[in-house]
Amino acid sequence: MNSMIKARTLYLFCSAAPPVFEVASVIEEAQARGWDVCLGLTPSAARWLEPSLDGLAVLTGHPVRSAYKRPGDPDVWPPADAILFAPATFNTVNSWALGLTGAFVVGVAAEGLGKGLPIVAMPCANAAYVRHPQFDRSVETLRAAGVAVLYGEGGYVPDPPGRDWPERFPWAVALDAVDAAHAAREAG
């Protein structure tokens, strides 16, 4: 990359849902699109990926984070130019919309709203979970706050309970949306 061109930094945040196991290839695709990727995980997602965390840190060139830093500790990531939260589970979507920031990645995503960052989220919850009335309210709350929530036709369509098909998770759609959101911000 030309040293005169500022690298675009993408915070890729993932919850514990089956598509998280594809995160290495998603990071590689984002890097191929010109993003410097910093990977943040919910605590459950970090446990799921524990055997791969060192390799993912090497792949991104940044520590993988799943917890808040201590006061006074330096930031180990460059500032974000955009955030992609995918897969975002039922719990994550609801926590974020309600402002419940116990999880590091939810807290950073909530703060990103206040900073005016381009943020894209792609939920991953089965059809039984999304029937809960809070889910639709949470999706609408996030959309009203400026998050591009890729849910329904053209985004993530819930699977029936008990069927996890991570190979059908539309990662390319999510990355396209981040590229478009960032470009719109830069042009605007």
Automatic annotation (TrEMBL):
Annotated Flavoprotein domain residues: 11-142
Domain of life of the native organism: Bacteria
SUPFAM superfamilies per UniProt: Homo-oligomeric flavin-containing Cys decarboxylases, HFCD (SSF52507)
Protein name (Swiss-Prot/TrEMBL): Bifunctional phosphopantothenoylcysteine decarboxylase/phosphopantothenate synthase
GO molecular function ontology, one term from the record: catalytic activity
InterPro entries hit by this protein: Flavin_trans-like (IPR036551), Flavoprotein (IPR003382)
A Pfam family assignment: Flavoprotein
